[in-house]
């Protein structure tokens, strides 16, 4: 009689533990306050050295294929690379004002921005 009770208690504990485990693919939360990233314009980003961490605000105006997009602000355009898993479920149009954080990469055709995060701009 004790054996079924032990199995039932173990099963109940397992189910309880699973109820507190995030679902597969679920986004986890984090800090949502000010950071120490330097906010720059696209024109400034084009002149910065490789591996500089920056924040830019503007618009993704078109897809260039292979996870690359044309990003624009009032000072110019830059190619940004946004990995599929960095979108975090966000969908944007060319009219959506976004804030991007990332790292400058030097390429043959000029600097690009390797995106770490993207979100709607406030």
What does this structure look like?
The chain has 122 residues and is of the alpha/beta class. It has a domain of 83 residues: Bacterial OB-fold (OB fold (Dihydrolipoamide Acetyltransferase, E2P)). The protein contains 2 helices and 6 strands, in the order αβαβββββ. A 5-stranded mixed β-barrel has the order 2-3-4-6-5. β2 and β3 form a beta hairpin. The longest helix has 18 residues. The N and C termini lie far apart (62 Å).
Percent of residues in beta strands?
A: 35-45%
Principal-axes geometry comes out as globular
CATH class of the domain at 38-120: Mainly Beta
Structural Rg: 22 Å
The end-to-end span amounts to 62 Å
Q: What is the CATH T-level topology of the domain at 38-120? A: OB fold (Dihydrolipoamide Acetyltransferase, E2P)
Extract low-pLDDT stretches. none
State the helix count.
2
Number of E-state strands: 6
Biggest beta-sheet profile: 5 strands, mixed, barrel
User: Which percent range fits the helix content?
Assistant: 10-25%
Q: So, CATH architecture of the domain at 38-120?
A: Beta Barrel
Question: CATH H level of the domain at 38-120: which superfamily?
Answer: Bacterial OB-fold
Order of helices and strands: HEHEEEEE
Structural class based on helices, strands and sheet pairing: alpha/beta
| Main β-sheet, spatial strand arrangement | 2-3-4-6-5
Give the overall average pLDDT. 84
């Amino acid at each position: 009689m004790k054996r079924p009770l032990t199995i039932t208690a173990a099963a109940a504990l397992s189910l309880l533990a699973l109820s507190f485990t995030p679902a597969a693919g679920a986004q986890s939360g984090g800090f949502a306050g000010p950071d120490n990233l330097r906010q720059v314009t696209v024109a400034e980003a084009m002149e910065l050295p490789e591996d500089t961490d920056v924040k830019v605000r503007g618009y993704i105006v078109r897809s260039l294929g292979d996870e690359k997009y044309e990003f624009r602000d009032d000072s110019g355009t830059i190619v940004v690379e946004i990995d599929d898993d960095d979108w975090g479920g966000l969908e944007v149009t060319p009219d959506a004002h976004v804030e991007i954080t990332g790292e400058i990469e030097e390429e043959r055709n000029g600097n690009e921005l390797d995106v770490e995060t993207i979100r709607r701009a406030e």
